[in-house]
Amino acid sequence: MSRDSTSRRDFLKATGAATAAATSTAGCASFGGGGGDGGGTLIYSRGDHPTNYDPQQTTSGEVAKVTNQVFDTTIDFKPGSGGKLVDGLAKEWELDGKTTTLTLKEGITFHGGDELTAEDVRATVRRFIDTEYEFFLGEKRSGYSSVTFGDWVESVEATSKYEVTFTLKQRYAPFVRNLAMFAAAILSKSQIEEMGQGAEAQAELGTDPRGTGPFQFEELDNSNEKIRFSAYDDYWGEGPHVSQLIMKTIKSNQTRAQDLINGDSHITDNLGAQAIKQIKDSDGASVKKKNGINVGYMAFNQSRKAAFRKPKVRRAISYAVDTEAIVNSIYQGFAKQADQALPPDVLGHNEDLDPYPHDPEKAQTLLEEAGETDLEFELATFSNPRGYNPSPVATANQIRSNLEDIGLSVSVNQFSSFGPYIDYTYAGKHDAALLGWYTDNADPDNFLYVLLHPGVPVEEVPDGQSYVSWDKKGNASNISSWANREYMKLVNEGQTTYDQQKREEVYLQAAKMTHEQAPWVFLDYAQLTRGINQAVQADSYTVSSVGGPYLELVEMN
């Protein structure tokens, strides 16, 4: 079957003409059904359409929106809580030194009908990190393999039918939180084995994912950029309260907002300022906001561009870029200027720091002192809206204009799709690049290690050197290739410290170092904004800064 239309069963035959009407006819009434379990169709619109939905093959939040509907994690985040842990597939867990034990709930089934056991958890982890496992995902696995399990797990064992024991290589404070990350979603051992050996065979799992989650994956329609789901009747948790879910892609912010207002979709995200205004001014939809746990930034690739290895150059560019104008004029106030890598509402965010002011004269002075007044470089950017950067092309052009004002030459390399853009930046082909990060687990390590630690031992970084070469870097998400020995020591200490007060003291220092050393231009901390059509019971949808979206809780009017 063509990968443009991958389905496990004939979705349209199963759901009937009502679904077709729901996707083609404007107006709220076209979706059928009111609230209550099994009532109606929920349509969620977004700005991009990946084509593979394996949680172990991606770093994309767009993929996570889908996999979080199909799969569950052993531990979860309470919706809207900002990171409070609650039980998921596991009813109990304990972290003691270098041992983590999980006790699974009984009677939970995968969409294929098999009961969840400890062997499924073990097979999931081994597929991601164990090179000796015959179903190892290999070169197809994402960079999350190292920051979720790989660098920390010595072994994982099914110590009984419903008990899993992880033995860690070291004390690792964030480990329990890592188990709630989307990349730690539990796969079916039966499906893993069904896919067959080899990375290419295993890679196909993402076109027909089968988990224990509230919605079953029915059809991946790549030609129309839609995904169709049905409610899983045997779901172990609360909900779902709709019988069908559709995720569709509309790349234009304004078009997506109008689609919501018209009633052709029910919830949408990653909205720009104009789209937010459209929705606010309408009678048929409203906007929900929440402080996000995220950061938007421009990374300097020190491995590729020698000039970026000089702190004065990085600080000069930070002074030159008018982040206040970006936040106020382009994002129009739904974000605030960033001043460090760690966002507010996360342990260790340093309140004593301020954003770099727009100071072109100081920027030129620093460039002169660094001997880099004729600097030229490429700035890579994506085009589709992201929550931390809803207008990436406008942002890139603002940066280019600011830097041209101080005599630098910047060419913007614009990508039309986010997937190829991630491939480009994670391969280190950029000089500088716009990116951002939503928290995976609301832990400071998820920012300060994942994004700015090179993932190598401190002693492997020569004294006095501020970077590692791309091929030596062990941490894929550090696209600046920054490697500061003192910073690395602090982050390593934070990982092995279980006392929260001591961890906070360590991360306050590390956050201050990110400000002073400026491995990025710190752009913004964005609010989360969601558009909600009046067909949705407003109180049933919770905007969450970590995890989700929790669409199984949504009810229709």
UniProtKB/TrEMBL annotation:
Determine the domain of life of the protein's source.
Answer: Archaea
One CC-aspect GO term: periplasmic space
**Which InterPro entries would you find in this protein's record?**
Peptide/Ni-bd, SBP_5, SBP_5_dom, TAT_signal, TAT_signal_bac_arc
Q: Which PROSITE patterns match?
A: PROKAR_LIPOPROTEIN, TAT
Residue ranges of every copy of the Solute-binding protein family domain listed in the record: 85-454
GO terms for biological process?
A: peptide transport
Coiled coil regions, renumbered to chain: none
Which Pfam families does this one have? Answer: SBP_bac_5, TAT_signal
Molecular function (GO) terms listed? Answer: peptide transmembrane transporter activity
The keyword Transmembrane belongs to this UniProt entry's keyword annotation: no
What are the entry keywords? Signal, Transport
Record flagged with keyword Signal: yes
Q: What is this protein called?
A: ABC transporter substrate-binding protein
